[in-house]
Amino acid sequence: MSTCFWMIEGIGLNAKDIESRVSTEKVVRFFAKQLPDKPELIDMIMSNDFSKFDINDYMYGNGFENIADVLCHCDDTDSITFGDDGNGNCYFYYPPSMPWHHTKTEPKSEEEVISRIISAVKKITDMSPYEIRELICTDLYVVGIG
Length: 146
Prior knowledge:
The protein has six helices and four strands, in the order E-H-H-H-H-E-E-H-H-E. By secondary structure, the chain is α+β, with helices and mostly antiparallel strands. The protein has a four-stranded antiparallel beta sheet.
């Protein structure tokens, strides 16, 4: 039996910290855009009744691995990624990169990364920018084991 190790390093947050703050209405609207072949989501939006929505049916399936993966789809810049530590924690983060790997959407500063994370989290929660900022670690360093 072998063990694998990997690094989760950069600026980001443990996405499990926001799970309890997900807005059902916002996340239904998000999934309706991502999964247009799910008429039940449109029905919920049209009737303004989100009581039958089971977040686990969408957050952990339908092409999404976990809440951090969902947050990646909330980031319009495609510069923030996700990873898990093998112990049930999943991270939404911007990893450092070398200049020759930079893309056109690469953030220019730490503040820009933080702003992008806040923007993505706000798309599926009712958290304030201040509350989100409090969860962001600018020196994220986690060793994943599996």
